[in-house]
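Risk register update: the risk of archive-format incompatibility is retired. Evidence:
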Amino acid sequence: MAEAYDEDGVPIVGSPGELVITKPMPSMPIGFWGDPTGDRFRATYFNRFPGVWWHGDRFLATDHGPIRSSVDRMQPESRRSSSRNR
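Archived output:
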């Protein structure tokens, strides 16, 4: 289930927050190549909010359902980079 969390890890509705997935879903990655212990995978997705998959994007949950915010906030410490940064 997709939810928005505030900076303290509390679910919020009506304000943009951090996109988290609180229950497993089919499209979630299960690991990284070359990471046999899973340490890098866990550090990437589960360290921000322990036990909850953190995507790294902004998200708006509303009373009418979720809306993904396409906020471009790719920072140097981000896991992903856009083609314009290459």
